[in-house]
Design brief:
322 residues, alpha/beta, Spore Coat Polysaccharide Biosynthesis Protein SpsA, Chain A, nine-stranded mixed beta sheet, 11 strands, globular
Length: 322
């Protein structure tokens, strides 16, 4: 994969440091196109930032939701590879593409997700720092920086890509050759051909999941379900490429300094559209003729590996109106 063949789609809902995120994309992904879907009331970027950090900038007046914003950006792009990126993610090193390209080059891999320096909960990579504070006993992590750095050195990168133990994690021992099937799409790099294979009702991501949550599991279910024999269907988390995810950047949003009078720069969410129930989407009805073990109706036909019962049709994707 050449970076000129990659488009990064970045929906933003008001993460205050989104310009820092975009700066790291320009720095560590030179040649890639950047499309920003800005859903904030006042605009998340200034005019100079738009010129510097984006190739396409779309401003809307409310929360489209992660899925619709991502679908919008994918439809605007024309590259063979797509990066679906949260606005609170930073790229940290030029060598991140070595692992991503290695895995995307495998015949059965459709999408990859790098690992995050900062863990989702209390888990940590335990990357050494110079903060001088006592490390957390539970996870061995620095509670001050959570291993965030302005610049990551080659030594930092080599440490991240070394076999080691990670405290307070579902996967305690990591090594760079490993992967796990199943990803959280905060930074997903995917073949456009795989997205086209699961496109339904003009949707890549199901817009039923609004404003966000559940759409990544649904997308993986459809990827694995629609696999051709042995080709391009797996979505894997990898451990030889790394980025920094701040996690919940929009949820923990604070006011932009230049908009301090107006308050928090968050978009308007349509409350009645909220939905994040993957099981509910795939739940069979009492009238369905398919009966599973012991003659009981299946509560949900969802699974990471695709539909549990292929004779039950896959529910269609929902296309939300603007």
């Amino acid at each position: 994969m050449n970076l000129s063949d990659l488009t990064l789609i970045v929906p933003t809902c008001g993460y205050v440091d989104v310009s820092r995120s975009l700066y790291t994309y320009r720095r560590h992904a030179p040649g890639a196109k950047i499309i920003v879907i800005d859903q904030t009331p006042h605009g998340a970027l200034g005019s100079d930032e738009i010129k510097t950090y984006t190739d396409v900038y779309v401003k809307v007046d409310r929360a489209l939701g992660f899925s619709k914003a991502m679908n919008f950006g994918i439809a605007l792009s024309d590259s063979p590879y797509i990066g679906c990126i949260n606005d609170d993610v930073e790229f940290i090193h030029d060598k991140m593409w070595v692992g991503i390209c290695e895995w995307l080059g495998k015949k059965d891999v459709a999408a990859v997700n790098p690992s995050s320096v900062k863990g989702y909960n209390l888990e940590s990579d335990a990357l050494p720092c110079n903060c001088g504070v006592e490390l957390d006993e539970k996870n061995g992590n620095c509670p001050k920086c959570r291993a965030w750095k302005e610049t990551y050195t080659d030594e930092d990168w080599d440490y991240l890509n070394s076999p080691r133990e990670v405290k307070f994690s579902a996967i305690t021992k990591t090594f760079p050759e490993m992967c796990v099937d199943g990803i959280m799409t905060w930074a997903m790099f995917i073949h456009r051909a795989a997205l086209n294979r699961i496109r339904d009702n003009e949707c890549y991501y199901d817009e039923k999941f609004y404003p966000g949550g559940g759409e990544d599991y649904d997308l993986m279910c459809r990827l694995y379900d629609a696999k051709p024999t042995g080709e391009c269907y797996r979505a894997v988390g990898i451990y030889n490429s790394w980025a920094y995810h701040h996690w919940f950047g929009t949820k923990n949003n604070r006011s932009h300094e230049r908009f301090f009078i107006e308050g928090v720069n968050k978009p308007t969410v349509i409350q009645e559209l909220k939905y994040n129930d993957v099981d509910g989407k795939y739940k069979t009805k009492p009238t369905d003729p398919i009966i599973v073990k012991e003659g009981k109706p299946c509560d949900s036909n969802w699974d990471l590996w695709g539909r549990k019962d292929k004779s039950i049709p896959c529910p269609p994707c929902t296309r939300l109106k603007l």
